[in-house]
Amino acid sequence: MKRTILLRLMTLMASSIVISSLSHAQVENIDFLRSAPADGAKLLEAYVTPWVNAFGAGLNGSWYNTAKPHKWTGFDITLGLNVGMVPASAETFDVSSLGLSTALSGTGEAPTIAGPASEGPPMTYSQSGVPLASFNTPPGTSWGYIPVPTLQVGFGLPLGTELKGRFVPRLPIKDGDIMLWGAGLMHSITQYIRGDELLPFDVSVFGGYTWLRGNVPLTLLPDPELYPYAYSDFNPETSFLGQNLRATVTAWNAGAIGSVNLKVITFYAGLGYSDSRTVIDLEGYYPTPVLMTPAGLPPYAEYTDDGVISAEDFPDIDIRNFSGLRANVGFRLKMSVFTFHVDYTRSQYNVISTGLGLSFR
Question: In a 3-state reduction of DSSP, which class is residue 240?
């Protein structure tokens, strides 16, 4: 019964948090994909990277709240919430630094998805000197805190070892979805010290890996100002409905943990190395303008079958997120079988974590 209630609470919490985050995203303001595929991919990567990095940092949180592994057959169920924080330096990017092609012109500082809620500099997509599309880079959300909920189970094994697992089944979020799983292992070092049962502290080594996949629907339709469209194989009302952004995030961290275990409160700290990676794939078809050069008439832009870009035409977006040292410190309160913990992780993208749990042995 308790497990069912906790699962329902986790599902409600995860859904509300992710929906709240996605509601900030400008998934319908992706005019920059009307340009050449390589340029569109570079702008998309620069725009979403801060949230991606903060999310990856959050996935590495709440793995532990003590350095003392469960005894054999002991276990815990913990609902955690990790908030990855975007640094101020990642709120904007320089358009000129992206290496865009000569077909796409524009300069200046543009907001990332976590940046100011105002449009970025104007951009112009041209061919043979003829402007085909003009747009501003999308506004930010002024939102630099990315919540990542986790439901985790720890189980005590022999030889001072604890196995940890986390899992979120596929959850529908608006028109998209999200799912997650992860595994970790903690092993006691203190057990190798003679008289370890009398020591007021514990030291362990830990390693954890998390995998997450999410789908977010996109909307990019032909420019209504250039109607009527000259499509023969595509229907402007139905052919572009399958647009989707699929993100696969992997995160891992490894290091040493130390804790001082008192009667009710436990103070713990960890030092280690973390890394995360995000691969973004686009799905569906995307309309772009085509240069028309009729004999005896000025050139102009039109939406035709030749301008429809398949998701396969976009280059891979592989964001090697931050990697490096991470250090965290926190405390846990234990009242009977109930636990509550809070900790702070310092790294390139800082994380605040908190959680509630049930713990036995």
Answer: coil
DSSP 8-state secondary structure symbol assigned to residue 40:
H
pLDDT score for 13: 42
CA distance 96 to 276: 27
Cα–Cα distance for residue pair 13/17, rounded to 1 Å = 6
Contact 32, 137 (CB under 8 A): yes
264: left (phi > 0), else alpha (psi -120 to 50), else beta?
Answer: alpha
Residue type for position 131: P
Strands (E) across 174-316 are located at 176-188, 201-217, 244-261, 265-283, 285-287, 290-292, 300-302, 308-310
The mean-pLDDT minimum among 14-18, 210-214, 352-356 falls in 14-18
Can you tell me whether residue 190 is helix, strand or coil? helix
Q: Which positions ≥6 away from 354 have C-beta within 8 Å?
A: 62, 80, 81, 340, 341, 342, 343
CB 357 within 8 A of CB 335: no
d(CA 75, CA 278): 32
Query: What is the four-CA torsion angle of 293, 299, 303, 307, rounded to 10 degrees?
Result: 60
Burial (CB count within 10 angstroms: exposed 0-12, middle 13-18, buried 19+), residue 124: middle
Specify the pLDDT at position 2.
39
